[in-house]
Amino acid sequence: MKKIQFTLIGKTILVLKISLVAYLLITVLPHKDFSNFHIENTFYWFVFAGFVAQMIDGALGMAYGVSSSTILLNIGIPPKIASASVHTSEVFTTGVSGLMHLRLDNVDKPLFRRLVFTGVLGSVLGAYLISEVFDGNIIKPYVAMYLLVLGVIILSKGIGNKIKENKNIKNVKLLAFIGGFLDAVGGGGWGPIVTSNLINQGGTPSKTIGTVNTAEFFVTFFSTGVFIAFIGVKHWDIVLGLILGGVIAAPFGAILAKKIDKRVLMILVGILIVLTSIYTIYKTLS
Length: 286
Hints:
By secondary structure, the protein is mainly alpha-helical. Helices cover 80% and strands 0% of the residues. The protein has one domain (2-20, 40-285). Helix 2 runs antiparallel to helix 3 (64-74).
């Protein structure tokens, strides 16, 4: 039964990815100008950004957006272009990552079911609101401050070796809805919000990371569909570079999540949350 259901998840990921590619080929790409697309030195930076971001995300369950966006911004890509490119590429990288986590048995089946439906609902609502109603940047500092506190708690538990496993994790559906909503509205947040909270409640780090990463494909897929419908897709050199780097890194990130010691994994997650939260607060205030 477990094999059948996991096979179904994998097949669904493949079908949705193929559907998106077909849609882009039929309706979007014919209207795009590729005359300025050249394999230049900057393209390799895009590949590098995608590789590094997916290695971190696949191994620690978060920070693809902030990692890749940080590298893109530091090489001179405007924020709006960086954000749109990251969201589009993430559909493909999370799909490969999810398939790899399924293969390595990093996915908790009941937890996945509790995450995916309300996560998708929250992301679709958030994508619509950010596309048509308001600017999501206004809530970023508040989310970052909350995550900073949570990151310190997780880090202290890892350092103090106070890791507890708890199968009775609470408020998963609500957490997924909030994580999906903030991910779409704020340009990232699914991993930091969902993964960090589940681990803090006692979820097994490797299983939590694998499950959240797999559910993230569906969250990202449907929110990206809304973004494409209302905003469109641009700057394919950045998108293709991020996809290429991310797809190469995805299997290695999933393997790391499986192999790393639970305590070390918890410490790394805590450090990453603290650093990314401080960075977000700094960028907002400056």
